[in-house]
Every structure is written in structure tokens, then in C-alpha cells.
Amino acid sequence: MNHKNDDDRTQDLINNNRFFSHILKYKVGYLSLILFLVLLVPAVCNFWQDKPIIMGVESYYHLSLAESASWYNINYFPLKMINLFLVDSYLFLIPLFLAFASLWIFLAFAKKVNISEKFTFFFAFFLVINPAFIYTYITLSTYSFLFFLLLLGFFLYSSKNKFFHYISLVPFLLSTFFDIFSGIILLLLFLVYLYLEKKKVKSLLKGFPGIVFVSTFILIFFNILTIKIPFVLGPFNLQDTIINLVSDLGGLSGTGIFILFLALIGLAVAWKSKNYSFSYVFLLLFVPVYFYSSQTIFHLSLLITFFATVSFVSLFETNWNLELLKKFTFFLLILGILFSTLTYLDRVTELGPSKSDFQTLTWIKDNVPGEKVVFSTPENSYYITYFAKKTPLNLIGGSGNQEFNDNITDAIFASTYTTTTFPIFEENDISIIYITEDIRNKYSAEQGLLFLLKNERFKLVHSHKSSEVWLFTKELAEIEES
Amino acid sequence: MKKSTRNWLIIIFLLTLTTRLILAFTIPNFTPESYFHLRQVEHITQTGVPLYNDLLSYGGREHIFLPAFHYLMAFFNLFLPLELVAKILPNLLLASLTIIIFFISKKIVKNEPASLFSALIVGFLPVLYNTNNFTVNSLFLPLIFIAIYAFLNIKNKTFLYVYILTLLALSLTSGATVLLLIGFAIYILLSFVENKRIKRAELELILFSLCFFLWVQFLFFKRVFLEEGISFIWQNIPPEIIFNYFPTVSILQAIVLVSVIPFLVGIYVVYRSLFQLKTGRSFLLISFVISTTILAWLRFIRFELSLSFFGITLAILFAIFFQDFTSYLYKTKLSGHKKYFVWGIAIILLVSMIMPAVNAAFKQDTPSNQDLAAFKWLESNTPQTATVLALLEEGHLVTYYGKKHNILDDQFSLIKDVEDRFNSLNILYTTQFQTEALAMLGKYDVQYIVFSPQVKEKFNINKLHYVNNCLEKVYNEDTRIYRVKCKLEETK
Hints:
Chain A is mostly helical. Chain A is 62% helix and 5% strand. Chain A contains 24 helices and five strands. Chain A has helices spanning 18-25, 27-48, 57-67, 77-85, 93-112, 117-128, 131-138, 142-157, 162-167, 169-174, 180-196, 207-225, 241-245, 257-272, 277-292, 297-317, 323-348, 355-367, 381-388, 402-413, 418-427, 437-442, 448-452, 476-481; strands spanning 373-375, 391-392, 430-435, 458-464, 467-472. In chain A, strands 2-1-3-5-4 form a five-stranded mixed sheet, sandwiched between helices. The longest helix of chain A has 26 residues, at 323-348. Chain A is globular and about 75 Å long. Residues 1-10 of chain A have low confidence and may be disordered. Chain B is mainly alpha-helical. Chain B has two domains: 3-22 and 88-362, no CATH class; 369-484, no CATH class. Helix content of chain B is 63%, strand content 5%. In chain B, strands 4-3-5-7-6 form a five-stranded mixed sheet. A two-stranded antiparallel sheet of chain B has the order 1-2. In chain B, β6 (471-476) and β7 (480-484) form a beta hairpin. In chain B, α5 (97-109) packs parallel to α7 and α8 packs parallel to α10 (200-228). Classes of the chains: A mainly alpha, B mainly alpha. Chain A binds chain B through residues 1, 3, 240, 242-243, 248-250, 257-258, 261, 265, 315, 320-322, 325-326, 328-329, 332-333, 335-336, 339-340, 343, 347, and chain B through 155-157, 160, 200-201, 204-205, 207-208, 210-212, 214-215, 218-219, 222, 225-230, 232.
């Protein structure tokens, strides 16, 4: 018995579907609306909860650096200027602007280089509802700016107008200032672009493409040697490769499980097509780098979204023998993808800094004078720098000996005896301990540092909800001596 | 189907069912984990919804589980007493495997006597002889093999609907449905490696199954995934006892549990199909054997379930062997004695399987009536809000019969301090120090301690070391129950 029932009468889900044709026709509007919603929900929730609207450790890393940036600091002086005019509550407008600009440039660029409308729509749709994308654009993130610059660069480069074509060099060169990995991506993208444009690689060293390629190359080396850019900026969160990859498993961002599932099918589909062979080059680069630093989840999620789109379009463009299952599968996938996004949006506002972080750290700034070293988890380090204006013991993703600092942090949290713990505090000049709800949840109150806080040398000087400030005081003998 | 075959099949089914029911009713009570499911079924019968917010387990917690099995049992509980439902229905479902497996084998080998042998093997597979185990596996196993049968008959539209309905039921019954999906993935891979073309309809069905299963699991377990991350696979089982759930099994143990003949024959068939004949007819089944082995080896599925699934699949593969064997026999001078060979195989199979099966049934870890009396005593003789310390295995008895708070049972999911609780429980039964014990009893607000023969056996003790003025014996049979009279307080 054949189930291929009435193909002619069954309306295709993607092709010749009135509903979908309408969406495609107004795709810019619909995608912008979705983007607006997914980025505005966290901001509005934060506003209602009275917590800082801009989230994420990386945001405060950049803001801390911008505060002390000099006029010649190309990376941070612009942010410093913006921060002078925009108070903290409005800083979310920066990534929001970058998100919209990136989306619109991407759609215009896709049209210009004749990427199919369906592919463009689904890629953009899957991308804007991807947790990694959402997280990148609700925080002040290097990669949101990088993505914008790369898109702008390629958009201008593909322009037939000579001026715009040449001016593309500016965003291209600017994008090399973040980290070495970004520079490598630019070079690879440029090669792929030329390859897809059917330009011979020989032409690479001639004319304007040659200038772009060589100047990018030189600038990457210049940045490595002079401003010592890292291979990958950060990481600004704890490294857990699997959890950070799949948002549905509680990762900071990552990709939804359904997109990941589609991407796995996409890998097989793309393998058969010569047009997609370049994507495997990126896969070979992005996967090892992700294992090196999960900070690059944004890049990997772009690639995952690409493969997911390949499979999605390919699956639903073709006729199925079991037409009924095709519809079911389509809706299950769409529901699953949306479900992952909604789940993420539901919990993203739980990310720090919380209201009590802000309140407590501001209290430290106002009430604890002088240069002090604050002990807390590495994830709190840039909140301490930015809000409390104090020096954290362990800067996550910062310069210095990260491993050494991590070891000290672990040793303090696991400390059993004051005789071993107090010397660590004294050697590192730690005088403030900042305890948050996360720390209370993570560590037992019956042992380690949280237990030692009962010692008389620790004084609770401030608390707000579950955030606490403890002072580590000198020994009586030391006080008498001094 | 020939009339004689039908009669033999009915005989095998009835023989299996009768044996199972006799064993189930001979052995008193149920396995410890059954009491969790009994409680859920009871709650559904009374209220219509599962007990997701359990005020007694762990002193109050949220359960997240797939409820299809419990609803099915609750439906029968409307007409029959729960104890009867719990003894008859799981055994009926598992006995029905004989019929399902007969049809799968027949589909694959197109040989009725061979398929009857598969049915016979499944009927007396020792690993399935947990006759007093009231768990979801009794529904899951028949369902998964119905799904496989429907998948094999996908050309027929009726079976397409059967498959979809079974998949729906499976997705709502057990997360172990992933066995089916991984099996499909390996089937695709094997076919690709062997250059065999997979039917388009099969691929579409596999894709749909994956999406559907993922979707249902996410609807139910969203919170578990978010809170436990990748560890959800191990269900938050404390590391100290994870080996009880995912043990390293020796080949010898596996042979005993799936029976020696099906095991050896199954391995032989897998070898021949993969490396010599390269025929497609058994590829799907071999894929399931491989998926079960891999998942069990990686400790992704529980040992008991993986071995059950493995054993049933090997039983089907036995039909292929039997068919090949009898075809070979026809070519030899012994072809005239074929009947004797068939009877010979049947007798060898029965002899080698019935004893281990009965033995497996009697080895079930069920509490005695005396043990249960102690837990029943708790219900009417202790305050309603009391917390009772009992073994991990007895946790559900405290909540089911005693209707009191326990500090630990085998539903570990979403319990943050499960490791602490497990360690505390062990310490409370073994510590020599009264202050340490009182501190822990205070921490979990324990008012009663159950000291059962299982405690004696497990910890090799005859009494609690800290029994003195602080513990009052309030129940004194084989199982003793103590009331905690003292409390450790900070000095002012």
C-alpha cells in the first residue's frame, strides 16, 4: 500500500504555501519583531525586578576597562564616551542596536549575493531565537560587535559602488582588534567569499582583495606583538563544554537541543552538496576552539544554526512518502525550537548581577574606603571591579596567573583550619569577603570557608537578602603592634 | 497462521502466564521500588492525577515522571483491588511478549516453528522473571516490541497508525524509549556501511520518532534537564550506589540471566549476519542488540532493562538460527529425524530456562509480611508529621504503608542533598557516637528509627550502638522501631 497520498492536493509546507509566502514577503518585519521581543523580554524583566538591566560578566569586564580607558585606547575609549552619555540603565541599547543593524545588514547582504529567500529566512529566524545569540545581544559582548563589523564589511565589499567597496576595509581591519581567533575567522570568511564568488585564489594577492587580505594579516600580527591580544577573549564563565553547548541542559547560553538535532542531520545533508563544502572548514576550526574556550559558543552556534537551516530546508522542501508525518515533524520541530527559546528566556533574567549584588557592592563602594582586595568567586570579579570599585582576588578571564588564582580560590573555599586559611588571606591582603546566594548554594555551611566565617576574625558588616559582606580583621596582637 | 501453530502459541502464552502468576502469588508482597508505583497508582485512582508534589518522600519534594503506566494501572484499579492489578497485569503484559515476539520472528524468518521457539524462549527468559516487580518495564517491553513489529510492517497503513500510537505510549511510559531511537540510528549506520538502501518511509518515521520523543521528554523533564544538566542520565543517583544501578556485568552473569542457549545462538547469528551473510533481514534487530550493549556499557540505561531487552532480541535471533539449522538438516541424511531434533531443542531450552527463571523469581528482594507489619504500625501509632529513618530500600514502605516522611528513597531526581542524606543514613545506622547520631537525627528531624532484619544484614550489626535513654523501643518484633526522645541543642 502506498502512503504517498495525494501529493498534488497536499499543500507544501514551505513551497507554494500561502502562509509561508506571506511571511517571506514581510520577513524583515517579522524577523525584526521577533528580535525585538526576544531582546526586550530580559531587559523589561530586569527593569521590573529593579536589577541592572545589562547582564553578564563580560559586560562588566568591558565597562570596567572602559572606565579607565585613555583616548588612544581604540577598543574601549568609544565605550567610555558612550557611557558618559548613556547611564547604565540604557546601555542595553548598544547591543540592541547592534542586533538590529546586524539582522538588517545580513538580510540585505543575503539578497545581494542571491542566497535563497527561504534559506535566509530560516537561518535568520533560527539565529535570533538561538540562546547563544540572545545572550550575546543582551550583554555587552565583543562578538556582537565583531559580527556586526564582519557583516558590515562584507556588505560594503559586495557593493558595486567603488567608495563603499573600498571603505569595507575599515570594518574588516577593526574586527582584528578583538582577539586572534576573530582575525582568523575574517581571513577564512574572506577566502570562502572569494571562492563562492568564483574568484581564483590567485587574484587574492592582486588589487583590493589583496590589500584586504595582506593588511588583515599584518594587523593581526601587529596586534599580537604590540597590544598582545589573546587568542580568544575570556572566558567569562566556568568552562563546561557540554552544558555550555546545550542551553536546555542549563548552559549559560548555547543552542537548543532541537537545533542541535537538526544540525546533526544538516551535517549529513551538507556533505552531499558541493556548495556547502566550505562549512566543514569552519567546523574543523570552530569545534576545537570551542573546546579550548567555550566563550566561542557564539561562533559555533552560528555554524550549528547554518547546518540546522540546511537540514530544515532540505527536509521540508522535498516530498515525503508519509505526508502526514511531514506536517507533524515540521510542527514538532518548530514547537521544540520555540520551546527551547522560551525556556531560556524564562531563566535568562536569573543571570547576574542581581539586585542584591548591585545593592551590596554599591554599599562596599560607599562604605569601605581605600584600596582593598575582595575575595569571592571568580564569576563575581568584574561586578566587584565595576560596582564596588575594589580589586577582586581572582579575575575571571583576566590577565595574570589564572591557574594560580583559581587554586587559591579553591583552597580558601575548601579550607578546614584557620591556621592554613588565615595566612592565605594575609599573604594576599584580602580584607573583604563577598558571599552571594550562589556561593551559599554551592558550598556547604557545615565546612570550608562558610563554616570558618563563625570565627571571631570575620565580621559581618552588611547583608542584603542573601548577599553578605564580611570583613577579615587583623589579629589583636597585630592591631596592638600597629 | 496454521491452526496448530496458533494452538501452540496459545499454549506457550498460557503456560508462561500461569507460571508467572503462580510465582507472583506464591511470593508475598512486591519488590521495594514497586511501592512507589503502587502509591502513584493509588493516588491517580483517588484524585485523577499523579502525585507530583509528594509531601512524604524526602520530607516533601517534587516528582517528575512519565505517567502512562500508572494511568493504565489506575484504570484497572477502578474495577479490581490494587494488589490484584499489581500482581496480574504486569505479568499478563510480560506474558504477552510471547505473542508479540512470535509475530516479529515470523515477519523476519517467515517460519512458524522457528517463531514458536522465539516465543518459548521469551516466555521463560530468567531476566524477565521479576514476577513481583510492579514497575514501568512491564508495560515498556511489550510496547517497544509492538513498535518494532509495526515498524517492520510500515508498508501497511494500519501499522503506521499502530506505530504512532505505540510511540506516543512509549514516550509517555519510559525514557528508555531512547533504546529504540539509538537502535534506529545504528540501523541507518549499518545500512550505510553495508551499502544497503533504507526505505524512504522508514527514514521519515525514524525522524518523526526522534522529534516526537525529544518533544515529550522536554515537556516533562525540562526542569530536570536544566537543574541536573547532563547528569540527568544518571538520575542523580548517589555515586556510592551508582554501581547497584549500572553494575559492571560479567559475561557469565549475562549468560545466566538471558539463558545460555539463546545467548550463544544470538551471538552466532549476529556474527554470521554481519560478517558472513550480510543479509538485511536481521539488521534492525542487530542494531538493537548493538544499541543496548553500547548504552548499557556506557551506563546510560539500567542493567536490568538492558539485559531484558538484549535477551528478548536474542530470542528473536534464535528463530533465524533455527531456520538455518533446519534447512541445513534437510540437506543431510538426518532430515528424516527432524522431528526429534525439534523436540530435542525444545526440551533442552525448557530445561535450561525454567529452573533459572523460577530461581530468579524466588531471589526477588521482597519484604516479608512481618516487615510490612512494622511499617503498617507506623501509620496509626506515630504522629502524622513524623519523619522515619529507614533503609534506602525501605523508603517507599515508610511512605506507602506508614504514610510518614522518609529521609531517603530511590527517587533521587531533583534532590539536591541526596549524597548528604545517603551518607547520613549510613552513619546513623553505624555510628558509635550518640552526639553525632543526635545531630544528624536533628538535622533531618527524625523521630522514629526502623531497625529491620535488612539493616542487620546490610550493616552487619545487631543493634544501634547509641541505643540508651535517648531511644525508646516502641515496636519490638523481627523489625524494631525506636522513638527518638532526645534532641541536641546549642548551649546558651
